[in-house]
Amino acid sequence: MRTTVIINNLQCENCKNLLDTEIQKVSGISNLDIDIATKSISFDYKTHNAMEGLRMHLKAIGYPITKDPSIIKEDLKNVNSPQKEKVVTNK
C-alpha cells in the first residue's frame, strides 16, 4: 500500500538525509520519496506492523508523524457520525 504522511520537523536537506537513512532501517517500507517543500514522506508499506514500526521509529528519532491518512479518516468518521446522547432516567 502507498501512503503519504506529514512530518512538521522536516525542514532541510540534513533532515531529509537523516530520514532517508533511518527509514531504510525499518522493515517493510520501500519506494521512499521525501519532499522538503511539502514536509511529506511518501512510501509503500507491506503491513500494518511496518507502518506502526515506522511511526514509532520516527517518533523515537524526533520526527513524529503529524498527519497521516488513518488519523484523517478517523477524524472524518468522528465528525460525520451522529453523536449518541446519554439518556438519564429517574427511577
UniProtKB/TrEMBL annotation:
| Superkingdom of source | Bacteria
Any idea where the HMA domain is? Answer: 4-47
Matching entries from InterPro entries are given as: HMA_dom, HMA_dom_sf
Q: Which GO terms describe its molecular function?
A: metal ion binding
Protein name (Swiss-Prot/TrEMBL): Copper chaperone CopZ
* Species in which this protein is naturally found: Jejuia pallidilutea
Q: Taxonomic lineage of this organism?
A: Bacteria, Pseudomonadati, Bacteroidota, Flavobacteriia, Flavobacteriales
